[in-house]
Amino acid sequence: MTLLNDIAAYKEAFKQKAPEEKQKLMAQATKELEESGVAQGLKQGEKIPNFQLPSATGETVSIKDELAKGPVILTFYRGGWCPYCNLELKAYQRELEAIKEAGATLIAISPEQPDASMTTKEKNDLEFIVLSDEDNKVAEQFNLVFKMPDYLIDIYKESGLDVEAHNGNADWELPKPATFVVDQSGSIVFADVDSDYTKRVEPAKVIEIVKNM
């Protein structure tokens, strides 16, 4: 079982059941985002910002403190309402022991409020750190934030996705899904940022990068 297999199966099921016009508009939004050149993300070799965020369970987590223990895998996800994000989070949970054995800490970050993050954590039985980056303040420092187009917002609302309630605001801004491997100096040794939210990096690849550091 791999993340990419899970994603391929979900995409095929979505293709079979979703209206063609909806699929067309969602693909259009992804293409427009890619062509816009916005939110390219921090690159390999750059330093990450020093940040603190509340966890789903209420503690304040400092990236400086976590890096003092060893390298950190940071994965930014859109929210617990996103099926691709849930597949990714579950895949990381399956690999959590391997991540620990490699000496790394795994941290997932979304713009959801702590209560919504807690729901995501419980729903997926996540045993790693899940942080709430309300208003995308940290994601902005990682150059990941973009505003959804109005026609895509309409599609999400029609689908019953209440992103406003999850995030506690009505700005409809999201981070691009992104994964970073950060060494103890705070430097990025691996970065994966994609405008297509259905594309994710396989956790096994990330673990190999940590092992080879």
Automatic annotation (TrEMBL):
InterPro entries documented for this protein: AhpC/TSA (IPR000866), Peroxiredoxin_BCP/PrxQ (IPR050924), Thioredoxin-like_sf (IPR036249), Thioredoxin_domain (IPR013766)
Catalytic activity: a hydroperoxide + [thioredoxin]-dithiol = an alcohol + [thioredoxin]-disulfide + H2O
Any GO CC annotation of this UniProt entry: cytoplasm
Annotated GO biological process: cell redox homeostasis; cellular response to oxidative stress
Top-level taxon: Bacteria
PROSITE patterns named among the record's database cross-references: THIOREDOXIN_2 (PS51352)
Thioredoxin domain residues: 42-213
Gene3D superfamilies in the cross-refs: Glutaredoxin
EC number: 1.11.1.24
Class of the enzyme per the UniProt entry, highest EC level: oxidoreductase
Alphabetical list of SUPFAM superfamilies matching this protein: Thioredoxin-like (SSF52833)
Keywords per UniProt: Antioxidant, Disulfide bond, Oxidoreductase, Peroxidase, Redox-active center
GO MF assignments: thioredoxin peroxidase activity
Entry similarity comment: Belongs to the peroxiredoxin family. BCP/PrxQ subfamily.
Functional note: Thiol-specific peroxidase that catalyzes the reduction of hydrogen peroxide and organic hydroperoxides to water and alcohols, respectively. Plays a role in cell protection against oxidative stress by detoxifying peroxides and as sensor of hydrogen peroxide-mediated signaling events.
Protein name: thioredoxin-dependent peroxiredoxin
UniProt source species: Bacillus weihaiensis
